[in-house]
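Extended Data, panel c. Modelled sequence:
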Amino acid sequence: MARLTRRNKQGDERGVSLVLVAFSLVAMLAAASLAIDLGLLYVGRSEAQRAADAAALAGASAFVDSGCTSMTGGCVAGGTQETLARQEAETVGAQDSVMGQAANIEDGDISFNYPTPMEPQVSVTVQRSAARGNAIPMLFSRLFGVTLGGVAATATDRYIPATYTPRMADLPPDLSFHDLKPPHLQESDLALPILRAGLKMAGSTPVLLFNEPMFISQGKNSNLRYNFYYPRWAYDDFRQIMQAESQREGWNYQDDWDVVPASEFTNSAVHMTPKGEAQFAKLVAQRILTTANQP
């Protein structure tokens, strides 16, 4: 006579439960270690930025100390002011630490730019990396094969003369824009392929695109041009093309061209006062936080 028997699966289910618990603990440990070490890198990045800011400010101050900003010809590339600026930037930068080590700034981490002879700029990069031999040791990620991490930050500062020729408000009756003529700007006139390539390289990393503020003239011929750089027809077409492309591609594009008042621009249509820079920086920071908090 056939007999029905009931199989006891309790032992098998316990085994499966133990395996699931083991895998869950490994995943939780990996997530916790990643969070802790990412926190370390975030702190390191902030400290590197602080050191770079201080070093760039010291380098820009050296332009004045060298005397080139008060000379008739101003500052020239390769001049003695660059040697002094490097020395000041390296000395001041080393007074800040990045994760317990003095910021190590080398000559190759400092570069110069001269928009005009009277407005020299200096850029300083502070880094801790494996290539430099001063990478940041990871605390817990080494359990999963990641032993070192790197951070880098760059700051740019420039000398702003006490007196300068204000940006042009009365404009020439000229509709030209480089070698382009009205009535319309075409997509092929813009560097959209470069934007597409950069965003493709970014992959899943969120990217914000900003159309930066500029001076908008209310002076003579301002019905033809927004400022010395841009005729209205070309700039309006540029904004329309960027808006359409951003909607089509799903780009996070911020058209902030008019968010800073005209009174906060100095000697050109794109150079802002410290107040104007702070206003725009606050807006950018808000946009970054909003993007970071999106699911």
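The chain has two domains: 18-158, 187-292. This feature is highlighted in the accompanying rendering.
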